[in-house]
Amino acid sequence: MPADLSSDPSSGSASSAPQQPPLWRQLQLTAGALASIRAGTSGTVAFEAVEPALRPGVQALGFQVLRWLGRAEALRRHLAKRTPPPLPDALLCTALALAWHSDHAPYEPFTLVDQAVEAAKRNPATRAQASFINACLRRFLRERDELVAATDTEPVAQWNHPRWWIERLKRDHPRDWQRVLSADNAQAPMTLRVNALQSTPAAYLLELEAVGLGATRVGTDGLQLTRARPVLQLPGFADGACSVQDAAAQLAAPLLLDGLLPATPGTAPLRVLDACAAPGGKTAHLIERAGADAIEVTALEVDGVRSRRIDETLARLGLKAKVVVADAGRPANWWDGVLFDAILLDAPCTASGIVRRHPDVRWLRRESDTAQLATQQATLLAALWPLVRPGGRLLYCTCSVFREEGSQQIDAFLVRNTDARLLPSPGHLLPQSGANARGVPDNPSGDHDGFFYALLEKPAPH
Fold first, then answer.
1. Residue 397 falls in the annotated catalytic set
2. Which residue in 136, 242, 276, 399 is the catalytic one?
3. What is the pLDDT of residue 19?
């Protein structure tokens, strides 16, 4: 799963930040990030390469470009007989993505065109293409309605996702695929998880209101902000009062723990494994939910750099867990031989359910990635299931809307493992919807990412 951002930078106008650099400079940097993403760099890395002072504005523009890139590329094909070199093409598509629809444009289309041409002239890498970019964009201004209409029938332009992605969603969710694609192109809300060891959602809501921040309740531990804010503006954030976590991701801890926690104090703490733990949000939620004395969490992460994020998360919240850098699929290298009461497997996946937070994902993924990741998920399930004690549980989840990584994966697992029982589970949660015929009837409704959950129990012997 990509590293989550504290809020969508496009939740505010790119022009509202103080001391913004000239628009042509922001367009240069946005085009550079787009070119990097097209070359295979994640959006997180591409935008982190922008100097901090300029990053918020560039990232806001970049998110909007990525959300409308399918339309922009279709328009470019109508305007140019040949695809330009990577950086000039990225600049041209950046301008088209921002200007194609006046209702969505962060600046007047004429201003965007003028500044995109200026950006081309001021960069040695694009200067030779400045006249070409100017000609394409001036024609776009003259013929915008006709050009947009000409691209309306192209699925990639209409839905701003790769064609294979659209076709897969049609197969996987024939009644909901259009709603999923529309949700992917919307801005995600900023949702908080209140630290149950410090406060309650009702009490923290009052703290937010006291500093002029509006929010609404979501789930058992969550609050959804009316408007995204920098985390350091949140009361007590630095001291662990809350964390940023999508409402769908907040389901993991209660699903795994409810009904498993000891009813009486003094009982031995639950032994829990968070198998793919970075950046540590679910690890922390498990401890907050159970109480520090009622649970012992081992947080496993194969990437040493990402594992440091777990340490940082726990330190801010004042929590402790055993953080181990190791491959969850190779228990012989890290397991001490003592069975776990519960395992959380938030498996690597396509991240197709969190596209509204990471709009680069749809353009980075390839159709073959799904099968490769499904194989990895099956390997992890096979490796970890023997580590669950009789009477214990394993919660399998992915931030994916593709059935190959969700319901099909679990169906195949249950066929291979007759000692596993599927407990009532949410199943596939689609972005901004909890409707799911296969899952429990009280799935959360409202605004959340796409996820899949399956709660598996290993029955105790009679």
1. no
2. 399
3. 62
